[in-house]
């Protein structure tokens, strides 16, 4: 899974968000390392909707513009959970390799 996809799904794990809210959440979750542009985001949202990982929860008009709120589906939550476990295993492997190399890793005993 690509990092932007992971971050979008993570942003929607706690609550539904509209597009700009997702952009802000992704920025915060990545400590500013991943900046989503609207065109990229909405393409990703369409793809994730087509894959049934997210869905439109509601739409509302704000200042004459339609604001669409997206939420994580149960299937999306399962996919995200699987990815979290995969990343944990990869991180544990990397930590073990660093220990075997004799490098001190902060936070590891």
TrEMBL record:
Organism annotation: Actinoplanes couchii
List, alphabetically, the Pfam families matched: PadR
Question: Which residue intervals define the domain Transcription regulator PadR N-terminal in the entry?
Answer: 8-80
Name the chain's protein: Transcription regulator PadR N-terminal domain-containing protein
**Species lineage:** Bacteria, Bacillati, Actinomycetota, Actinomycetes, Micromonosporales
**Per its UniProt record, what InterPro entries does this chain match?**
Metal_resp_DNA-bind_regulator (IPR052509), Tscrpt_reg_PadR_N (IPR005149), WH-like_DNA-bd_sf (IPR036388), WH_DNA-bd_sf (IPR036390)
| Top-level taxon of the source organism | Bacteria
């Amino acid at each position: 899974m690509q990092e932007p996809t992971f971050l979008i799904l993570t942003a929607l794990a706690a609550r539904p968000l509209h597009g700009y809210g997702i952009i802000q959440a992704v920025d915060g979750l990545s400590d500013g390392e991943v900046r989503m542009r609207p065109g990229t985001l909405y393409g990703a949202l369409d793809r994730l909707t087509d894959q049934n990982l997210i869905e439109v929860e509601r739409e509302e008009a704000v200042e004459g513009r339609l604001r669409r709120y997206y939420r994580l589906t149960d299937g999306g939550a399962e996919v995200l959970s699987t990815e979290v476990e995969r990343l944990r295993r990869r991180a544990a492997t990397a930590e073990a390799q660093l220990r075997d190399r004799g490098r001190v890793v902060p936070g590891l005993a």
